[in-house]
Amino acid sequence: MEILCSLPWLEQKVRKQKSLQWLRHLSNSWDEWVGVDRLMKHTEENVVKQQALDKKQGVDKNVKSGRSAQTKPKSSTDAKVEKEDLKNNVSKGKKRKSESGVEKDNVSLEKLVKIQIPSTLRKQLVDDWEFVTQQDKLVKLPRSPTVDDILTKYLEYRAKKDGMMTDSIGEILKGIRCYFDKALPVMLLYKKERKQYHEAVVDNVSPSTVYGAEHLLRLFVKLPELLAFVNIEEETLTRLQQKVLDFLKFLQKNQSTFFLSAYDGSKVSEGKGKGKDD
User: What percent of the chain has pLDDT over 90?
Assistant: First the structure.
């Protein structure tokens, strides 16, 4: 499943910054020192000209005393325009409030997405990290069983336990497989594993038919982050968490069968130094 993340607030910030720069430029272009030789002398003729200019520009005589200019009574058209502007501003205010509400909901959704990984599997993740980043060892590919094999075994396990094969389990496993295939090259690989990935996953081969439990387990660390982008009702989310936890317990139960106890040290051909994502 493809995950799209837009940053509208960043676009707004850029537009605002450009507007400020334009206003500064406009303001600077109208700032000018006027010499004495360009000032008009105080004569009756010049006063008449000034009054005519003031009248033309709609400047009120009270401006000189520091009071705001008085405008003429609004016509029905002006009042209608002003009313529309006020209505638009109120709508914008509501929109901002709504947008902030959505953002708040996303944060609360992230808090709701909690996946408890069993302690023995957490240790498996630590060993996995140490093998790759500290000992320069990789998982030998293709793995057996593969991610597809493990998902199929779990589906058979649930069907036998429940006495039937439910559509909901099938859909969840299909989603896990899809997430794994999309997320693996983006966020589930260490730097030292990338060359191996490009060598192993060719000709539109699905990573789930090449990789095994070691990389699948990494997905569940990232899954809360991925689910934060999906609009899920709280009740559905709760059921999903229960199903994921049950799947993790299945992995734990078959840990000695599904996971390697040692990695291959002959495949790391480059990148001995540590990268930021090691």
Answer: 41
